[in-house]
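Write out this protein's structure.
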Amino acid sequence: MRVAVWIVGLVLMFGGTGLFATNNPLSVEAVISIGVVGAVWSLLFWMSKVVDRIVDPRKGDSRGIFTALLSIAFALMGLVFVVAVHTEWKDKNFGTFGDFLGGVLNPILTFLSFMALLFTIILQQREIHSAKKDAVDLQKEKIEQRLSEERRQFENTFFQMLAIHNTIVNSMDVDRGKSKNELRGRDCFKHFRDLMLESYKSNLETDERKRAVAAHDAVWVLYQNDLAHYYRYLYNIIRFINESDVKKIRYIRILRAQLSDFELLVLFYNGLFPLAEKFKEYVEFFTLFNNLPKDLLFNPSHEDFYAASAFHETAPKKPLSFSDA
């Protein structure tokens, strides 16, 4: 926008002068005056840009700008000096020429002193720029160290929680009587599934959701102590991941890999209880049943009890309706 206004102003100025000059020849003074007006117009538009570059240089200091200004200044002084030599020396006006030299050299020396001050400013700018860069680099390094430390602390806690979770699973046992071997650890979940399936098949309820909930309730009544501890701790692992500022899906996948097929099946029907609403949302948000074989479900229609995101990571996910923080 600035360039367009500047060009339009010059075109109007010189275009109008050209039209006027077609009928009224301009004097040398008029031409010079118009040139000065054009130069002033340009300075008004671009001086702020020059000042901005000096005050806030892009490359650390204003060396380029000062070099350009210094070159222009010396070029103009040289031009004036050459003109004076040709005019005054020719007429042998040595007194006037000497006055001229004094009048020109003094401003030059003053100007050089001023430029020395500006160069000092340049050096200060470079030092300040370097200090700012070092401060920014140090701040980035501190942030990276803090994030690295937080991630290390999270992973330490996470893997400790996984170890405790496996300890809880391994501590489960099912006494099936003297005629059968005792079940321990993850083998218990196949037994839970068998009891649930037996209850489901014997239930004459027509509502599939109620039949599924009743099947899980049959196991819950017998093994509540083991299952309640298991459910609570698994829920808190997922909650811990959700509350942490990490790549959550990475750690959810690690957690999913710990769960056997029969564990996932029991968790599937546990999520249908009203008290497990938050857990069900976590399941759908983090695709906890990604590895669940669907042929284990008691009825294919049971898949509809959960959103598609519970089984497929690419499916659209609804945000959590609660905050455990």
